[in-house]
# Entry
Amino acid sequence: MKNQKPNVLLICTDHLSHLMTGPGGNNKVMTPTLNQLAMSGTTFTNAYSACPSCVPARRGLMTGLSPKSHGDRIYNTALKMPDVPTMADCFTKAGYQAYAVGKLHVNPQRDRIGFMDVILEEQGRHIGNGADGRADDYELFLQEQGYAGQEYGAGMCHNDFITRTWHLPEYCHPINWAAREMCKTIRRRNAEKPGFWYLSFSSPHPPMTPLQSYMDMYRDIEPEEPTRAEWSRELDKLPIPLQERALAGSCLIDKAGPSAEEIKLARRAYYATITHIDHQIRLVIGTLREEGLLDNTIIAFTSDHGHMIGEHGMWCMKVMNEISVSIPLIIATGANIDPVGIGLKDERLAEICDIMPTLLDLAGIEIPDGVDGISLASEASRDYLYGETDEDEMAVRMVVKDGFKLIYYAAGNVFQLFNVKDDPRETVELSGNIEYNAIFEDLKLILIDNLYGSDLNFMQNGELKGLPHRDFDFTGQLGLLGQRGLRYM
# Structure
């Protein structure tokens, strides 16, 4: 019945760029479920994470606020959630049973941020002691299965792209665990109340430990080579944030970075993990169907940000290149709900903070005052999108407008201009091309208008001057990018 409150299933991955999905035009990565969701709903083709880093992005997702409003653009794990209504708060107060499974990445770690309960998996992060706990629910599950402390027993790191296949039984893999726990949560619902369910996979964020069966799928598929443009070939001439992303790469031996074979293996493992997630999503949708809920459910799929995965010689996120900052965003509605569109592509500039107001709008729930995001279920649109990550000499800023993107690096006062509509892999840098001067100046003025806080130090006598350039001081990786050990409960 169309007058019933709809259920809402929000699925979020970690480190998955729109460009690494079928709906994003990638013909190497197999994402049949996402393809079918896109055919059944609307794909927002210009969706971004304004601060492409886990903690700030998730604060934006759950509050509908920009980094400036929610207070984090540097990945501050010690920062508590702002005192504002969260998406979970709004659904709970509207009579929904709101439950989450997987990664929240908030502090305190057991803060439910408005959910009635959270079944937590935080990739071995232990924040706080005492009542906040030491082990998350996935670690407790492994203990119950006789594998206590062995989450990282394969020796893989949660920030590196070395890889090997999963070392425990398949049912113990965190992707399977998260999907299974969400299926159980849906089955255990109160049938007289609508549900808001948040399924947050911690993958394809490393550790890269795909199941052998998924690695086998890609055995005979040659991964696409990472894009490497002329502007990115001389490492010593790049701004310090890009040097840092290159030198924090996988299997580092020297400034040449990983070998071609290691890059291919990393990309195969990344593809395999994405397909694994895609297949497990099918079980959750299948549970909704078998429970008779699918026709009255809104399904949204997204990610907190992307990942460089070797593009331009760089790894991880926290830069403003498309493969780091673009996110998938697909919304589909069941047969008993007014459709957002079937098989449509929406080219509006969208941001991760839009997801909260959009889902509330679709569910008929009032959007809180002060939310920065717009409802994509309405006709609202933005003229430009502003992005920011880090501060001082590591600061990177971004403006996207009319298919062009200006990236600004404070250290060295460096600008890059790309036509991301026609060149999404950013192979041709346009900032020195006189033909694009008017576009460059327009985006630069927008960028200056959005500076605040310590960014104002980049200005001198009304001009954007930035900070002095320096090379990244690489001091080694003795901690192996945050390697976990065996843990004894």
Q: What stands out?
A: Residues 15 and 62 are 17 Å apart (CA to CA). The chain has a mean pLDDT of 93. The longest strand covers residues 195-204. The two ends are 49 Å apart (CA to CA).
